[in-house]
Amino acid sequence: MKYKGNISKMKSNLSNEVEYSLPIGNDLVELSSQINKPITLNFLNQINCIACGKITKKSFGQGFCYNCFASAPEASECILHPEKCQAHLGISRNMDWAEKHCLQAHIVYLAISSNLKVGITRKSQIPTRWIDQGASHAIVIAETPNRHIAGTIEKFLMQFYSDKTSWQAMLKGKSVDVDLKAEAITAINKLPKELQKYTDTTNEVLDINFPINEYPTKISSLSFDKTSIVEGVLKGIKGQYLYLNDNQVINIRKHTGYLIEMDV
Ligand SMILES: [Zn+2]
Questions:
Q1: What pTM does this model have?
Q2: Based on the domain organization, do 81 and 185 belong to the same domain?
């Protein structure tokens, strides 16, 4: 089957193994059943901004034209620096957007993608956020009424934990062996008193299995900015990456808004 349209990040559904599908134009193409089959993605040399739809030569902040990147609330400073979010003070690029995104229940979590990391996300984004990061295990440590407080807890815990995923190691399936339940208690105990009231002591680990039979030993990362045709046998999917034969991987999310013709 051939499909054509602008792509956006893969949708996922948590089952025994994560089930993935790729939005392309108005279609949603189920990808899990394509594993071990040939797939071709052909970039048609056009990128449309995900906010305003205009053609942009270059993508900023995973899918925006420069104007929207500089003004869209989705590209606010508080996305990268949640502790700087000021929505709770009534300050935002767009308060309607902030009501739906910043002034909502957030969680702080520990996850193992390759390394152990701390992160935050909107409560409604669980487990999507963890799947998108390629985390194999995750545990909630706090729940807060807004993005700012979650960001403050994360910032504090960044003294002890990384907030980044080592994506090369994640793609190779390498991961540290950590007792997440014990680590969650350790992390909670490190928090200052005024932040401890937000802690979540449920202490349950979520395990996530990705559809990959065999991890590559090296990674050859492809980009539509350098090559317009990506083709091969789909070997697996993890995070927002497709694995093809011969160690090829491609980050789908990075190409949000790219016009693609897909053959599966
Ligand atoms: Zn735009």
A1: 0.94
A2: yes
